[in-house]
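tokens incoming
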């Protein structure tokens, strides 16, 4: 039975904070938006989780709006920051938006979405009007309880400028504007954005006497180190090929730790529950093969850099570890594949290997005659003779 969107998001661990009581509210497609900061000219893998949360809503029929922070980036989001950012020029922000726009276009190729810049409406907003339209609807008591304010204003904190303090209200205005202009009913973001997300929900309720909602996903933490996900020894891992090459990007995912890889397969790939389960079953039987990490690296690289780049990196890894990569079609006789890959020298020998339990597909012992489509996980099959890693061949599904 096909899972609903809410069931899928719950299984992937993508629901943390929410303003709706029943997750089933997500199963009726409406319109949502995701705000994207323009403080750099490229997204990072730290942004990728929430980008793919948006992709899952789009795939479930939701109408999507991506808001480039051309206006809010002139202020600087204080969320998750220990000190105030340096203000950027409008020219730099425009350049950053163009770089991010190209990445969003690539990540959502083939999908329908609307991309707008909040500078278009925030730049026209007069200060007195903002105080009347937004400021009067929030008490200082309410705003001072926000996590980012408490963290920065508490003992040992670096303090908070009035511009940063106002950021949450400006983002709330964005949601109110999109609610009235496009019928947007949901804002999504990371859990570090929760205070900003609920500001818009509250503003819509107070000004329009109507209901809108917010949904945050958990911050993704490396389970081995306890550090926020998205950094490598060289710094941030970028989605732009000029800042982090497809090779280095692929290697970043190849090198993730065993404890985290199952969680990352759920959050950073489009593989379904059964596919992830198959990958993890094979991985647990032979962790030295790093089959889960290689599947993760291939799937994420395919999303970010395209199938050709993913295939190129995968072939390099496979050739380094297992020699030449082979192809096979569904219903191919396994005896013939053993001969073709050099794992058997004759059909008689191949049949004897199968009958004696000496052949493994994805680290599971098999004695069946033919391949079937369930053997290919993400288009890849691992064929092994005996328990020696050197007697392993990587088989890709013939198109």
């Amino acid at each position: 039975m096909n899972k609903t969107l809410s069931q899928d998001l719950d299984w992937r661990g993508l629901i943390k904070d929410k303003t709706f009581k029943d997750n089933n509210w997500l199963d009726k497609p409406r319109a949502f938006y995701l705000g994207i900061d323009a403080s750099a000219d490229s997204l990072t893998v730290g942004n990728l989780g929430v980008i793919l949360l948006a992709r899952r809503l789009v795939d479930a029929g939701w109408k999507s709006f991506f808001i480039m922070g051309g206006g809010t980036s002139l202020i600087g989001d204080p969320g998750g920051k220990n000190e105030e950012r340096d203000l950027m020029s409008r020219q730099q922000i425009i350049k950053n938006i163009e770089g991010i726009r190209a990445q969003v276009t690539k990540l959502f190729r083939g999908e329908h979405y609307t991309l707008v810049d909040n500078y278009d409406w925030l730049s026209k907003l007069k200060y007195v009007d903002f105080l009347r339209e937004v400021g009067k609807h929030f008490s200082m008591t309410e705003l001072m309880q926000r996590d980012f304010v408490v963290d920065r204003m508490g003992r040992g904190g670096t303090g908070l400028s009035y511009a940063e303090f106002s950021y949450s209200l400006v983002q709330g205005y964005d949601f109110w504007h999109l609610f009235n202009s496009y019928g947007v009913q949901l804002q999504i973001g990371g859990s570090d954005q929760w205070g900003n997300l609920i500001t818009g929900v509250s503003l819509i309720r107070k000004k329009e006497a109507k209901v809108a909602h917010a949904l945050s996903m958990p911050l993704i933490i490396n389970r081995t180190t306890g550090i926020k996900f998205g950094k490598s020894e060289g710094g941030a891992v970028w989605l732009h090929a000029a800042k982090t090459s497809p090779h280095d990007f692929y290697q970043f995912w190849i090198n993730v730790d065993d404890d985290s890889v199952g969680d990352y397969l759920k959050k950073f790939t489009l593989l379904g529950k059964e596919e992830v389960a198959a990958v993890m079953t094979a991985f647990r039987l032979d962790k030295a093969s790093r089959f889960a990490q290689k599947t993760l690296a291939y799937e994420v690289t395919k999303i970010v850099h395209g199938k050709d780049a993913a295939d190129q990196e995968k072939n390099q890894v496979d050739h380094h570890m297992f020699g030449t990569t082979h192809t096979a079609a569904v219903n191919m006789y396994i005896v013939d594949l053993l001969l073709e890959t050099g794992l058997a020298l004759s059909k008689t020998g191949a049949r004897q290997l199968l009958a004696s339990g000496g052949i493994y597909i994805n680290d599971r012992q098999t004695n069946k005659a033919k391949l079937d489509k369930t053997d290919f996980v993400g288009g890849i099959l691992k064929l092994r003779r005996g328990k020696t890693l050197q007697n392993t061949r990587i088989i890709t599904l013939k198109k």
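note: Residues 229 and 277 are 23 Å apart (CA to CA).
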